[in-house]
Amino acid sequence: MDNTYWNDNGKHQAEYKRLIELMPGSGASTVVAGELIRAVSRLGYDLYNNGMGNNTSGAVNMLRELGAISDELHYTIHPYTRGRLYEGNYAGDSLQSAIEAACDSTIEHILAHPELETETNMHDMFEWQEEEEIFCEECGDSNDDVQWSLWGHTCRDCEDEFERAEEEEEREREEEEERMRLEDEEDEDA
Questions:
Q1: How far apart are CA 85 and CA 79, in angstroms?
Q2: pLDDT (tens digit, 9 = 90+) per residue, 13-39?
Q3: pLDDT higher than threshold 60 for residue 150
C-alpha cells in the first residue's frame, strides 16, 4: 500500500502534518484535536514499527468514543490493540486499510469541527486503555495458559508440542548416531 500517512502520502497528508504540530513531545495534548492526532498516530506508529505488539487499545477506544472513527473501523482495529501481533503483508489488507481510514476519518472529523483545535483537552488516550492480553505466538490463543517459555509466548498445548518435537529430534539424532556407529564397526570388521 503506497498511499499511507507513514509514507508521507496519505489522503490528507498536508492537514495531517499541520495537525501533528498540536501534538506534544510527550504526554496528553492540551487541545482535543492534538489528542485525537496523537491517538491515531500511535496506531500508525505501532503498526509500521512494532507489528501492533503494544497495547494501543486506549487510542482506538478514545477515537471511537469521541466520534473520530466509526464502530466498523474500531471493530477491525481493536483485536490487534492488546498485544496480538500483526502478521499481514502491509499491502493493503484489512488492518492496514482500517488504520489508514482511521487517519482519514480523524482528520476529517477535526476539519469538520475546527473548534477541536482550540478546545481544551481534558483526557488522555490512556484513560481508555484496556488490560493487555498475551497471545500464544504459535497458535494465536489468548488465555491464562499463555506464558513466556524457551519458544516465546506459548500456551501449554504448543509448549508441549515443541517439547515432543524436540524429544523426537533427539531420538532421531541418537538413532542416526547409533546407525553410523554400527556402520563404522562393520567397516572395521571387514
A1: 10
A2: 999 999 999 999 999 999 999 999 999
A3: no
**Quick one: which H or E segment has residue 153?**
strand 152-154
Let me know how many helices (H) and strands (E) the chain has, helices first: 6, 2
CA distances from 119 to 75, 106, 109, 114, 138 (A): 28, 16, 14, 9, 46
Per residue, what are the HEC states of 41-88?
Answer: HHHHHHHHHHCCCCECHHHHHHHHHCCCCCHHHHHHHHHHCECCCCCC
Q: Specify the pLDDT at position 148.
A: 54
pLDDT digits (tens, 9 = 90+) for 57-88: 999 999 999 999 999 999 999 999 987 778 88
pTM over 0.85: no
**Which spans in 78-117 are helix H?**
94-112
Q: How far is CA 80 from the centre of its chain?
A: 5
Phi, psi angles (nearest 5°) of residue 4: -125, 155
Integer angstrom CA distances of residue 151 from 14, 56, 138, 159: 44, 25, 9, 8
Q: What grid cell was written down for 69?
A: 472513527
